[in-house]
Fold this protein.
Amino acid sequence: MAERGEDPLAIHVIAASALQVLRDLIKKAGDDYVEQVLKIGAFTVASARVNGESVNLPSNAEMDAVVDTAVNGIKAGTVTQAADLVINLNAAGRRALLDSIVKPYNFLKHADNDPLATLDETDIDPDHVIGHALSALTMVSPGKPLPDTIKPYLERRDLLAPEQSSEAQA
């Protein structure tokens, strides 16, 4: 749908639905999606900093503290993987991180409760939700590569590591 340029709201909602199924599978395995994605993100950013690479991602004081702790742990040898990190985030904080994903979905789901409500166009970000769904898919299927059918989408958005892109393979 994204490749065909279809309706962004429809793409967002379908991707959010897929993400919810994957989040449920992650939860059934005993993990929490938000915690896992934060650990992976913090570890990735910390590793890049330790290696002297710049990372241009939005941040906040809470995540900066987690990344700083991860940097120190990597340098000390006590943090060698994302699972070594501890994320202390209450339920409200977890919900806030998912709000950008579920807001359009919930808007449609509960439209009958407030027929005059509107959804701001800036609340719709299908690429963001697709990225989360793909991240969750990798958590559900660790060690398995994403299907080849997803590669063109990732390449057009410059989301593949250089060694994974078809140009690098050619």
Observations:
- The radius of gyration is 18 Å.
- The helical segments are 8-28, 33-50, 61-76, 91-109, 126-140, 151-156, 166-169.
- Confidence is low (pLDDT under 50) at residues 165-170.
- DSSP finds seven helices and no strands in the chain.
